[in-house]
Design brief:
The protein has 4 helices and 8 strands. The protein has 198 residues and is α+β, with helices and mostly antiparallel strands. Strands 1, 2, 3, 4, 5, 6, 7 and 8 form an 8-stranded antiparallel beta sheet that branches.
Length: 198
């Protein structure tokens, strides 16, 4: 049984899943330390071996470890969680408090079941957008990408975040930088202390 890793309750798939790629400007890795003290040095991506080593200590599938770079949003470190059902991360807009949720979990989706495969509502409107689906329903809007038996959801409350921002966020899907590994996959010591309250 995997213990969820999160200090406080709150409420990623290959880059080729979406057409284009996320830009790595100053917002990239927002809310987490930079990989280098030099502002001119770009963050160093973590290798899959590094991700897998950390994920293994938590009994978590490294294929589910991804992040996004929503423009104008900051990663809420206390929201990061890994559990039996996958990875979840919340990003908050300092400007208006809007939230974008990233969820990566095992599963499959097709054009045939896209409208009915949902957690919060019985039916969602679903349209293809490149190699992803754009869905709305139950007060939510999201982009969903699927590959290798995993689903990536980039979602927000409908009307709070534009479709364009959600699309750009989904296209920015990437592996964590080295400096973000401790945030996404905390050491077991932190996991244990967080779960026991001490």
């Amino acid at each position: 049984m995997i213990r969820a890793v999160r200090a406080l309750p709150l409420l990623l798939l290959l880059p080729a899943l979406m057409v284009g790629c996320g830009t790595e400007k100053s917002r990239a890795g927002a809310g987490t330390p930079k990989a280098s003290s030099s502002p001119s040095s770009p963050p160093s991506p973590a290798t899959f071996a590094e991700i897998a080593a950390r994920a293994k200590t938590l009994g978590f599938d490294p294929d589910l470890v991804y992040l996004i770079d929503p423009p104008g949003f900051t990663l809420a470190q206390q929201s990061v969680g890994v559990s039996d059902v996958g990875l979840s991360v919340a990003y908050i807009s300092p400007k208006n408090g809007a939230v974008i949720n990233l969820r990566v979990e095992p599963g499959t989706m097709t054009d045939a079941n896209c409208t009915t495969q949902a957690v919060t509502t019985e039916h969602m409107t679903c349209v293809r957008d490149g190699n992803a689906w754009y869905r709305t329903g139950g007060g939510d809007a999201e982009y969903v990408m699927a590959a290798k038996g995993h689903l990536v959801h980039v979602a927000a409350e409908q009307g709070k975040v534009s479709r364009e921002i959600l699309r750009e966020s989904a296209r920015s899907l990437r592996r964590p930088y080295e400096s973000e590994l401790a945030v996404v996959l905390p050491p077991r010591e932190f996991n244990d202390s967080a779960g026991t309250g001490g």
